[in-house]
Specification:
Strand content of chain A: 15-25%
Distance between the termini of chain B: 37 Å
Shape of chain B: globular
Number of helices of chain A: 2
Number of domains of chain A: 2
Number of strands of chain A: 4
Strand order of the largest sheet of chain B: 11-13-12-15-16-17
Low-confidence stretches of chain A: 1-5
Radius of gyration of chain A: 19 Å
Largest sheet of chain B: 6 strands, mixed
Number of helices of chain B: 13
CATH topology of the largest domain in chain B: Rossmann fold
Number of domains of chain B: 2
Oligomer: heterodimer
Distance between the termini of chain A: 49 Å
CATH superfamily of the largest domain in chain B: Thiamin diphosphate (ThDP)-binding fold, Pyr/PP domains
Shape of chain A: elongated
Largest interface: A-B, 22 and 27 residues
Largest sheet of chain A: 2 strands, antiparallel
Strand order of the largest sheet of chain A: 1-4
CATH architecture of the largest domain in chain B: 3-Layer(aba) Sandwich
Low-confidence stretches of chain B: none
CATH class of the largest domain in chain B: Alpha Beta
Structural class of chain B: alpha/beta
Radius of gyration of chain B: 21 Å
Mean pLDDT of chain A: 89
CATH class of the largest domain in chain A: Alpha Beta
Number of strands of chain B: 17
Amino acid sequence: MSEVTQQKANPIRPDAGWKELPWGGIIPVGGTARAFKTGGWRSNRPIWDSEKCISCMTCWIYCPDMSILVEDGKMIGIDYDHCKGCGICAEVCPPRVKAITMKPEGV
Amino acid sequence: MAVQRRSPAESVAMTGNEAVADAMRQINPDVVAAYPITPATEIVQIFSAYAADGRVDTEMVLAESEHSAMSATIGASAAGARAMTATSSQGLLLMHEMLYVASGARQPIVMPVVNRAVSAPLNIHCDHSDTMGSRDAGWIQIYSENAQEAYDNLIQAIRIAEHPNVQLPCMVMMDGFIISHGMENLFTLPDETVKEFIGERKPLYPLLDVDNPVTFGPVDFTDFYFEHKRQQFEAMLEAKKAILEVAAEFEKISGHRYGLFETYQLDDAEMAIVVMSSAAGTSRYVIDRLRRQGLKVGMLKPRVFRPFPAEELAEALKDIPVVAVMDRSDSFSGQGGPLFAEIRAALYEYDKRPIMVNYIYGLGGRDVRVESIESVYRDLDIIRRTGVVGPRVRHLDVRE
């Protein structure tokens, strides 16, 4: 790539120098939110009990980070790479089910 | 600007604002978003009539403030449009936050700015405090002496801003009222010539290209932000080359020659003033008068302030014994105006350099008379003969 003429850049490498980065902080590809692992922001961790879960999908509907993992119509776990630990899933889990509980991280 | 002789019959009489509005009609931008402010109001007022009459294909956005006008212009430019706005003074100040977004996001927006003093106290007349306050916002800045230059510069600005090595926003200045509302004869280009000269914009990452999604304005922390600022530094160096490249092409279609700055009677000058914009015209008249009296006086008129042509200016000034830099704004550093500070810094590398003094002049539209400029040369003559500098920063025509 030329030093001065901007070309369509490749996906951005963490060690890319100023000459190869797209200008203006633009990210020239879509779907990059998946690569940004925001789970590290979490201070409370949802713990899912597969024995109690009835796969009602209420937590899947409410989760703001699309971090409820589902396969064949059943809940199969939590995406800890992106879950920020807001606790909404534990809050909306039906009172008679209570399959998700929040625990402090690092304890 | 050096002008090829053309028949006066080919000229048209226009005010600066009319000339700039006419250039905008010929540029035919995709989007113009604006908010009125004296003395720039007329530009968009006249242009909006062109839009209403179907003489341009422009989508007009009448914003609720200059902050919004610049924001809409940035959004339109990111979408891939050729987008413009115009403003003055407080309007430019209200845009200040968004000016950095335009340059940081590398959007080649072109904006005429009619120079006007800033409050307080309230004043609508010319000085350069508004755009000098934006000098570090990452925009290319081109100053025009008269309506002809404002017209020519605006057309060139499209090519400079959109140059593939540059991709930076550009503001084109003219002096409020003195030029914006003063009628003069000028030469415009045929519509087709302008259309061909500016061509179509080729945006790098247009948001409207839905098959190739991109993200504009993501958070840019310790890991990448600095690299993006380094790119802007490089873009400004490239802009200097692009300005000259575009000027050479523009000369072919117009006969008007432009550079980074213009000199007048400078080669053998023993005393020179550096002055931007409309006061350069008065200075030229004074130089002719003083030359007839045997005084070796000259002038340098910067056209491009950003990027700052430091080496070129220093080369042009280094052998002149005494130089006065004229600033139509004060940076209130206590050490003179911004033009003075930068020209002095540019000469730091040279062993031989002029004695330099600074004149703050014309604030709030204070008239710059023939006698005013002549008094500066008389002062320089005393410094040259006696070697006594006296006050480094002076205020021209201020009542004691």
